[in-house]
Amino acid sequence: MPVHHSWPLYERDRFFELGQLHGVDTLDPVPDLVDIVVPVRPARLGRWECDLIDNDRLNWSDEVYDIFGITRRAAVTREEAVALYGEGSRAAMEKLRAYAIRYRRGFTIDVEIRPAQAGPRWMRLIAAPVCIDDRVVKLQGLKFVLR
Question: Cβ-count burial of 61 within 10 angstroms (0-12 exposed, 13-18 middle, 19+ buried)?
Answer without folding.
Answer: middle
